[in-house]
Amino acid sequence: METNRNIMELILYSKPGCHLCEGLMEKLAQIDNLGIELEVRDITTNEQWWAAYQYEIPVLVWRSPTGEITLPRLSPRAPVSQLEKLLQQYVKV
Q1: Is it the case that residue 66 has pLDDT exceeding 50?
Q2: How far apart (Å, rounded) are the C-alpha atoms in residues 77 and 73?
């Protein structure tokens, strides 16, 4: 089996006790076909993050070669396969 050389760098804007954020992290951990490097940013530690995301979390951002791109929000009920398809669209860009 060939190893995927591309590492997809993602940022998750979250806060302590966010069950939707925890669910998204669990789904990301289940994706085996992509190399994912996840940085979790606690919005309660940064005023700018708090102002931008306090009503929006979880927010998933892809660090693309050209800059940071906020990914579309999926339903918390979306299966892991749907999240994986979404991410694969960006890897191929």
Answers
A1: yes
A2: 11
In angstroms, rounded to a whole number, what is the distance separating the alpha carbons of residues 73 and 26? 16
Rounded distance between C-alpha atoms, residue 45 and residue 49, angstroms: 8
Contact indicator for 63, 36 with CB cutoff of 8 Å: no
Q: Would you put residue 75 in left (φ > 0), alpha (ψ -120 to 50) or beta?
A: beta
State the DSSP code for 33.
S
Q: How distant, in Å, are the alpha carbons of 1, 6, 87 from that of 71?
A: 29, 18, 8
- Distance between CA atoms of residues 36 and 26, nearest Å: 13
Percent of the chain whose predicted confidence (pLDDT) is above 70:
91
Distances (CA, A) of 66 to 7, 16, 21, 62: 15, 30, 26, 10
Taking the C-alpha atoms of residue 13 and residue 62, their distance in angstroms, rounded to an integer, is: 11
